[in-house]
Write a structure and sequence with these properties.
Strand order of the largest sheet: 1-2
Order of helices and strands: HEHE
Radius of gyration: 18 Å
Shape: elongated
Structural class: mainly alpha
Amino acid sequence: MNYSSLGISMPGSGSDVLLIAIGALIFIYWVKTLVHILRTHFSDVSVKIYWLIIVLVFNVAGVLVYDLFGRSKHRQA
């Protein structure tokens, strides 16, 4: 039976697999960023807490902001 004419995609179709793969990569990079923030030495603990809150609340946008403004300014412990 042709389910595509009904607007129903079969599980495991190419687009589903691609979306799951992209989501998994984004999740892995998000977790990697959280670990980086936790392991990085900041001059003030409140800065670390601010970055954690930004990344946790804003997810992908928070990771991008941290990569642009926060990652290069601190050294890892």
